[in-house]
């Protein structure tokens, strides 16, 4: 019986593996063998448990077959052996506020799916949820092409085009009523979307209808809200809220139902909020009680904040896009009375307080805003910012791996390093359990047991991100 179960599990694992990689994808692969032994590694397993030194991992058929002390676990005959002395292995990152588009001009978001999926994988991200889509079918198509081995990239939990009421975004639908919200969810779910994102001008009736239709299909809804408060959304059954507390309008004194008082209006109240005060604690309790997860996207807010370092990865951008961001950066640096001077540190404190109160914190990057949030690089930066917020490096890695996988319902296969799980692993040339910035030193990214070369993935798009 057990043998039959094992065979069945192996068959399921084999199904999820691409039948064959195209020659174009093969060019990015540096390790591909039936049995691989990663020896003498430091393992940071993604659960928050302490790092273990001198471990050997045996990868077989795309999964982790064995883990143990290097002195005990010996590479099987014929295995490809890779000595990782001095290096660490962390789980492939699972990040949930990702996009396959980027601000290219005023109010316009260019569809950069092909370059972005390479950058995500190069940065150690093996699973993404796209947190909102202005590409129509592109997120879905890329997900399918990656699964078929025709494109390199992370596994994609593909989000439908945004759910929004009347709005001024060129690439976003204006839904008139709750019936349209229900139909939007039904159509895109039928097309293969597995997540939904509500946006700033949605009404309570539309959000409620969307949540109801998505839940009927076993799918989840997240939101970057404004017109609907966090508490209202929690009462309507939303699963996840984006941008920590920076999109909350719960504390706006004259807030009108179903109307967005402006992002800035909400943010002024958050900047003034006391993390130890009763109003904030009551909201946190509601979110925790209703099991609403919160996504931290500190990376995008850092780009709005004066005095912060230049974000990593700008070299990959097309020169005009790079210059555009550098000009934005200079403007931000000179801004004398930006709300972000107080809001950004407050964002860190509120997210930490939410997690300490038992809330589920997820991580994402949000490559939007005024630019400068570069896939892959920004996922690593997001982990650094969580540590700046007060989490230990082990906790930050867990937020960026197992927490995301658990939210997406994929934790049986990915999100942590364990026997039987898919071999989605990042080899790091350093020790991120002590120095989180070492996550930037990605040596190899294993996805389903196949090792990709980050340098080649980056080189293939460098200087051209913005074109495609
Ligand atoms: Zn976003």
Write a concise synopsis of the structure shown.
This protein is of the alpha/beta class and 468 residues long.
Would you mind describing this structure in some detail?
With 468 residues, the chain is an alpha/beta fold. Helices cover 35% and strands 19% of the residues. It is built from 16 helices and 19 strands. Strands 1, 2, 3, 4, 5, 6, 17, 18 and 19 form a 9-stranded mixed β-sheet that branches. Strand 3 and strand 4 form a beta hairpin. Helix 8 (263-271) packs across helix 12. The longest helix is centred in the last third of the chain and has 17 residues, at 340-356. The protein is globular. The model has no long low-confidence stretch (mean pLDDT 96). The protein binds zinc ion. The site of zinc ion has 6 residues, from loops.
Kindly list the characteristics that best describe this protein:
35% helix; globular; 468 residues; 9-stranded mixed β-sheet; 19% strand; binds zinc ion; 16 helices; alpha/beta
Mean pLDDT: 96
Number of helical stretches of at least 4 residues: 16
Fraction in beta strands: 15-25%
Structural class of the secondary structure composition?
alpha/beta
- Low-pLDDT segments, ≥5 res: none
| Largest beta-sheet characterization | 9 strands, mixed
Please compute the radius of gyration using only Cα atoms: 22 Å
Present as ligands are: zinc ion
- Broad shape: globular
Strand segment tally: 19
Helix content: 25-40%
> Distance N terminus to C terminus?
50 Å
């Amino acid at each position: 019986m057990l043998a039959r179960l094992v065979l069945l599990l192996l068959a399921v694992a084999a199904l999820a593996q691409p039948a064959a990689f195209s020659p174009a994808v093969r060019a990015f692969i540096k390790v591909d063998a039936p049995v691989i032994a990663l020896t003498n590694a430091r393992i940071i397993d993604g659960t928050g448990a302490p790092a273990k030194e001198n471990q050997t991992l045996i990868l077989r058929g795309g999964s982790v077959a064995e883990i143990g002390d290097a002195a005990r676990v010996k590479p099987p005959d014929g295995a490809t052996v890779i000595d990782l002395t001095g290096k660490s292995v962390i789980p492939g990152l699972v990040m949930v506020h990702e996009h396959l588009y980027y601000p290219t001009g005023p109010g316009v978001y260019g569809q950069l799916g092909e370059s972005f999926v390479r950058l995500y994988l190069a940065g150690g991200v093996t699973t993404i949820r796209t947190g909102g889509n202005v590409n129509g079918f592109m997120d879905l198509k890329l997900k399918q092409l990656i699964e078929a081995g025709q494109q390199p990239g992370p596994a994609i939990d593909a989000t439908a085009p945004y759910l929004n009421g009347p709005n001024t975004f060129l690439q976003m639908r204006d839904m008139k009523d709750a019936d349209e919200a229900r139909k939007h969810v039904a159509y895109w779910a039928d097309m293969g979307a597995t997540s939904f994102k509500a946006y700033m001008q949605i009404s309570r009736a539309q959000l409620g209808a969307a949540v109801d239709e998505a839940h009927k299909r076993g799918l989840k809804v997240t939101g970057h809200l404004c017109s609907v408060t966090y508490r209202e959304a929690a009462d309507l059954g939303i699963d996840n809220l984006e941008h920590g507390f920076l999109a909350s309008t719960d504390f706006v004194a004259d807030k009108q139902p179903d109307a967005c008082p402006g992002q800035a209006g909400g943010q002024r109240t958050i900047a003034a909020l006391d993390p130890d005060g009763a109003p904030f604690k009551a909201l946190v309790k509601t979110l925790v009680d209703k099991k609403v997860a919160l996504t931290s996207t500190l990376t995008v807010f850092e780009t709005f904040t004066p005095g912060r370092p230049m974000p990593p990865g700008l070299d990959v951008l097309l020169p005009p896009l790079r210059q555009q961001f550098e000009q934005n950066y200079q403007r931000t640096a000179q801004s004398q009375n930006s709300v972000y001077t107080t809001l950004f540190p407050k964002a860190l404190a509120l997210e930490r307080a939410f997690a300490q109160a038992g809330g589920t914190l997820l991580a994402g990057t949000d490559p939007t805003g005024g630019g400068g949030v570069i896939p892959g690089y920004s996922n690593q930066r997001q982990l650094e910012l969580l540590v700046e917020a007060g989490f230990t490096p082990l906790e930050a890695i867990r937020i960026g791996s197992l927490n995301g996988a658990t939210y997406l319902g994929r934790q049986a296969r990915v999100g942590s390093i364990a026997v039987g799980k898919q071999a989605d692993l990042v080899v790091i040339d350093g020790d991120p359990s002590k120095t989180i910035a070492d996550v930037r030193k990605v040596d190899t990214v294993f996805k389903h047991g196949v090792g990709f070369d980050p340098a080649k993935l980056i080189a293939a798009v460098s200087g051209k991100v913005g074109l495609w």
